[in-house]
Prior knowledge:
- By secondary structure, the chain is an all-alpha fold.
- Helix content is 29%, strand content 0%.
- It has two helices and no strands.
Amino acid sequence: MSAGKSASNNPLRVGIGGPVGSGKTALTLALCCALRERYQLAVVTNDIYTEEDARFLVTHNALTPDRII
C-alpha cells in the first residue's frame, strides 16, 4: 500500500482484538505513531466500561484528541 494510492478510495478498517493485557492499546499506539504522517487515521476504542484506552492514546499523542473516539 502506498500513501495516497490504494485499490479503492474506501477507508481501510482494522480491528484489533485480544484478552485483557495482551497489548492491544500499545499496538494501536505504535501503529498510529508509524502511520499518522502518511495516512489520515482515526481510532475508535471499544471499551464499554471505561475511557482508559482513549485517554492513554491521547496522553501519549497517538493522534490529535479529535481523531480518537
